[in-house]
Design a protein that fits this description.
The protein is α+β, with helices and mostly antiparallel strands. A hairpin with a 6-residue loop joins strand 1 and strand 2. The strands form 2 sheets. The chain has a 3-stranded antiparallel β-sheet, with no helix packed on it. A two-stranded antiparallel sheet has the order 1-2. The chain has one domain. It has 4 helices and 5 strands. The protein is globular and about 50 Å long.
Length: 112
């Protein structure tokens, strides 16, 4: 579904049918420690770009909203985890290094 920022994201949900006004980020809802979500948070969220770059079914994302100084500059921070190899993924745009090593042709991209 398209976010208020105009990007596709599988975690965003909205329903304006028959007078309803529901908008939510299901990724942030899944994290009990995350601050409340606002539609403006979609404008600086890295999740749609991560999903576009890496659509691995083993990539698990966890997001939180961080406030800047004096409540200004809210941003969405994302942590990634590989459920196949049970390791943290430092760059979710690239994905899990061990998953890439298992695929022919991609081993050369990561080196030894």
């Amino acid at each position: 579904m398209k976010t208020p920022a105009g990007k596709e994201c599988r975690f965003y949900y909205e329903n304006f049918h028959r007078g309803r006004s529901d908008q939510e980020c299901r990724l942030l809802q899944a994290n009990p420690n995350a601050s409340s979500w606002r539609p403006k948070d979609c404008h600086n969220c890295p999740v749609p770009d991560i999903l576009l770059a890496n659509n691995s079914p083993d990539l698990v994302l966890e997001a939180t909203v961080k406030n800047g100084l004096l409540g200004l500059g809210r941003r969405v921070e994302v942590r990634a985890f590989c459920s196949r190899h049970l390791v943290d993924v430092p760059d979710p745009h690239v994905g899990c290094r061990q998953c890439a090593m298992e695929k022919p042709g991609l081993k050369d991209l990561f080196g030894p």
